[in-house]
Amino acid sequence: MDPTVRAIHALYASFAYAPPHHQWTVLAAVVATAPDAPDNIISIATGTKCAPAARLSPHGEAVHDCHAEVLARRAALRWLFAEVLRLRATSTSTWLVAAADGRCALRPGVRLALYVSALPCGDASMRTLAALQDPAAAKLMSSAFFPALAPGAVSRGRDDYARLGVLRTKPGRADSPPTRCMACSDKLARWATLGVQGALGARVLAPMYLSDVIVGDVPPALHALALEDCARAFSARVGALDGLPPEYAPHAPTVHFTSEPFVHSRTVLGSPSSSNESLCWTADAAPRPEILIAGLRRGTSPKHRYRPKSLPAVSRLALLALYTQLAPDEPLSDTTTYESVKFRATAYQAAKRRLIGPGTPFAGWVATGAACQQFNAHGDVVPGAHLALDESTEDLPVVVS
Ligand SMILES: [Zn+2]
């Protein structure tokens, strides 16, 4: 896997970007591989920040969770959507194939890998963090200071290192304002069950799973511990999970470690603080990456934040606009909300209920909230639009061009 990581680092270096003030960050990338083609780095992102719960936008223009893994998945979704359009236009793709149901699937032999330059935050990183901290600080975060957690409850940040297998919200720092963003470990486990295409992608893409997760910056002496933690965090704690719609199934990714150093990591820079900025890039799109700060493109003035050309490419509003290109037969009315488009993916929603609904392994999942999903394709909030998902809804036909 090291040549793949070196190629990612070389591409990142070609952007000639550095976080300001020598602050560190985390780098993530999604790579598609095939037996008969060079590796295809389809997305690259950096970032360590997410929006406080009090500052979530209802209009879809701001990216709330700017951790590298989350941005890299969304940027990869943009690439997958664009590849669907290319496949439809040319009838050829090295990576995707038209499935019998009209959607697109990964071509046989194609694998998706996620690289992340440090252990994902949350469950996968708790014991490694504790092992690397000074003993006094680790003891302060230990179970002696926290009450027992009720079944299905969510731990905040790094509270109580010793609780393993639990859902955690971001961020790790106890002095940061609380958020409604789940930790990257939890999101990886969700992608391992529901796929990286998400609800928005589910009607044009068959479920797509990460085959491999490549993690950097874990000392060799801790590989065995971190491997055990990743296996639990990404898949084992979800279990076999019966009762999913037939096309969904838990897929445990294979975890690899790399010793290739990331130039802007905490370990290399030795800086005490992480950067507020995120970089976000999708292959075969704009040549230059976007730089985001507080979930918006750097330099966007408040009054221009809703303009299409100011939107972050991975914002919900921009992804909804791209989705409408894939589904031209489904014009969105002014009262069609982002949430209602996601609810059209009924098999996906059934699988999601099986994973995070009442009595399930992830019953404590903290959603960003319906209030952030009631915007239409113009970014306007549609009053009274929130839907209660009807479990008896017939599966809608998939989108066929
Ligand atoms: Zn994270």
UniProtKB/TrEMBL annotation:
Residues annotated as domain A to I editase: 43-355
GO cellular component: cytoplasm; nucleolus
InterPro entries on file: A_deamin
Xref: Pfam families: A_deamin (PF02137)
GO MF term (any one): tRNA-specific adenosine deaminase activity
Gene Ontology biological-process entries: adenosine to inosine editing; RNA processing
Record-given protein name: A to I editase domain-containing protein
Lineage per the UniProt record: Eukaryota, Fungi, Dikarya, Basidiomycota, Agaricomycotina
